[in-house]
Amino acid sequence: MKFREEVSLYLKEAYSLSENTIKGFGIPKGFQRTGSILILRSNHKLDERIGEACLNIYSWTTGVFQHVSTQTEGRIPKLIYLAGQRNTETIHIENGVKYVLDIEKITFSQGNSNLRKRLINEVNDGENLLDMFAAVGNLSLQPILYKTINFHLIEKQPYTYKFLLKTLKINDVTRGITQNIDCRDITIKNWADRIFMGYHDVNEEHLTSALKALKQNGIIHLHPLVKNHDVSEWIEYYSKIIEANNYSIIDVTSYTVKKFSPGLEHTEIQFKVSSIKA
Predict the structure, then answer these.
(1) Closest of 117, 180, 120, 126 to residue 151, by C-alpha
(2) How far apart are CA 110 and CA 92, in angstroms?
(3) Which of 104, 140, 190, 202 could hold 206 in an S-S bridge, CB 3.0 to 4.6 Å?
(4) How far apart are CA 12 and CA 8, in angstroms?
């Protein structure tokens, strides 16, 4: 039975609600499980009885929250409590990797799970990996654990950085470098073979800092929000910055990660570049 049907049946039986009343609740089609917390997405306030239904249907659930939006550069989720425990800290496990999270203050998208698996295959043993928007290792942790690489993780938000350190510790990661700074303030030069930039609004200053940290040859992963499947505008924007910093573009590839909102897609664009200063 599908999620919406299960919840509707529970509401009908537990609260003696009519089908028309339940239909008016606007029950989402599905949910996101993050650790022991169940998250529902909707732009309108959901009835708390939907949360109670989820608690009773899914025995693993400790708390139910509604995700309304994500705000600011720090990608802070806006949540509404619906049912169960109010504790928002949890440990989420994906592909054998543990992520320590506070869902109220740290964004972790399960819609990126296929991206994370693909990155394991793309990162090569022996590489130097720089993650400029690390969060809790959202993109970089699985390559760190499943490949033999050197890594440098940067996370600007002090609260998120604490959870990054907790995540590394719980996964027994004792090597590598972490910094709680703005990635535009990095001082490393000519070090990275590959750079992850998992922030939708990377600007010229961010990308220029990345290029300074890149070796003569390297790959940069960018994550813009693309309108109507057309990546050309973003490729042109990034290309101008790359070429202005004396790098030539060897290859460009793009992948649709997931639908972000109506008319917008989270897209990954990879630039393979080479310095023309040598």
Answers:
(1) 126
(2) 10
(3) 202
(4) 6
